[in-house]
Amino acid sequence: MAFATCALGASPATLKLQRGGTTVPVTTPLGGAPITSLELDPATSAGDADSGDVGDVGSKPVINRGLPHGNAGSNRQANAKRAKSSPELLGGFDGLNFHDQRYANGGNQFSIEPPDQGLCAGNGFVVESVNDVMAIYGSAGNKLVGPVDLNTFYHYPAAINRATGAYGPEITDPSCYYDAGTRRWFHVVLTLDRFGTTSSFAGTNHLDIAVSQTADPTGAWNIYRLPVQNNGTQGTPDHACAGGFCLGDYPHIGADANAIFLTTNEFALFADGFYGAQIYVLSKQALASGQPANVAMFNGGDPDIPAPAFTVWPAISSGGQYAGGHNGTEYLLSSDAVFYDSGTSNTLWLWTVTNTRAIDTTPSAVSLNVAPLTVQPYAVPSSLAKQKPGSTPLRDCFALTGCAPAYLGYPNFVYPAPRDLAVNDSRMQQVSYANGKLWGTLDTDVLLGDGSHGSGINYFVINPDSGGIFANGTLALPDANLTYGAAAVTQSGRGVIAFTVVGPNDYPSAGYASLDAKAGAGDVHIAAAGAGPWDGFTGIPYLGDNRPRWGDYGAAAADGNTIWLASEYIAQTCTLAQYLTPPLFQCGGTRGALGNWATRVSAIGL
């Protein structure tokens, strides 16, 4: 490379991954009681088993994944414009929502927020995954399969068997990727095992990887299970995580011509402590053919690594376009503002895995390098996002004497409406390799028009060979927050950023903007306007803690000259009277008792 890199001399740990069975996605029935005494998993009291929101500093009693950081904010002024029209929008449809998640598999599911958006597209199909369901659509938006609860898809018992009280494994953080080179679909989740059928976590946890057997995702898939507790058991190295078990949190997927890349943030499962991001390199051809797969593992917590390895996001490649130098190359990006008391930084870290062709024969010969890149300053967002006022029947029921005890089984509790919702911290979000460039986004603190702090999106277009920057700027509105940005790019180098738009004049909406290596980001478009405010359970003291959750990541995927976007938004609104009309709490099948999030899938033509 033409710029300074640090070649990390230690060889990766290696193991062989065996196929663990097959599965076929089959729609599971919606049903079950409108609310039960087991709405929330007691082992993960604040929504899903992951985190990433502002204020996430170890708020869960069982799983602590907080990093100490400041929130000094930045002085960058929001100055983007709203587009007057959306000529590029080819169409869209409402994807999975809270009602699908809670009532899938006959209602043997927990209430979960946020959804965590996983989307992939190719070969005439669109696959959407959220916590903890998936669906498969045709390119016209017609649902082919779904909702499929992920416990059933991965051949586990139900998340909660409401007839017996038995718990199944906890599944979280779905991501997916369609690989044009092998014409296979790759889907990954983090799974936490239980002690028997109790709610208590056993400590063992693994990345479950499903790989389609053909280019049709509605057919059969092979399943692999990669242990990530990293305490010396099940072939894992021992990273000495406090409490005896590490956790492979926040997994995401990337690929080059030779390998599938999975990365995690490694925390202690039963104690405080962050131990560095982990990078797993898996043989793509072996996975695609259903064979045992070599795995090489790099420990970002190794003291010889000079970079603070946190959310090291691997690049996906559209249309089978990969970096071929150095016997096969994969690029990854990470940020580091969360490690500083100021909450600010002007450094990204470019990670490079080379000699990836060796993964099939000599996995220990795969190499890792890292280099700092100087970019425009960015900052951990310092404020939650305000919402436009509207109907909030869950809040109204909690506030109304007799409603919550009689209908929800909880005491009365009065809280403001609408509540502020969480935005992302400044961790790296989705990364793409396209047209010889590396593209990525992250959330950053900005100043809004009234002088208050809000959230915007920093974008980066990088020359990975020289470390040069083609484009780097901030996309932000003066009157609303933009959060959980995810960029996808066509092979010709035309990109789109997807995000949520929310503010005092905006219900949570699905937004997007163009992204170009020369012009940077374009105007803010609204793909689907929110119909009402977020009205969910997280942040209500009786239902966990004080963290109002919204997203952990968005998703975007390029398929030829079409880019598919998936964003969390609010698709419904209803009054307290409608909320209390049978079937209770469901407002015509648009929400559940404790939540109303939805997702919007949009197609953008380029």
In terms of DSSP E residues, the strand content is 35-45%
**Separate helix tally:** 6
- Tell me, briefly, the overall form: globular
Topology, number of strands? 32
Gross CATH architecture? 7 Propeller
CATH superfamily: YVTN repeat-like/Quinoprotein amine dehydrogenase
The description of the largest β-sheet is: 9 strands, mixed
Question: Helix amount, in percent?
Answer: under 10%
How does the helix and strand content classify structurally?
A: mainly beta
CATH topology: Methylamine Dehydrogenase, Chain H
Distance between the termini: 32 Å
Mean pLDDT value: 92
How many structural domains in the coordinates?
Answer: 1
How does this model look, in words?
The chain is mainly beta and 606 residues long. It has a single domain, classed as Methylamine Dehydrogenase, Chain H. The protein is 5% helix and 41% strand. It is built from 6 helices and 32 strands. The strands form 6 sheets. A 9-stranded mixed sheet has the order 1-20-19-18-17-21-22-23-24, with no helix packed on it. A 5-stranded antiparallel sheet has the order 2-16-15-14-13. Strands 3-12-11-10-9 form a 5-stranded antiparallel sheet. The longest helix is centred in the middle third of the chain and has 7 residues. The protein is globular, with a radius of gyration of 22 Å.
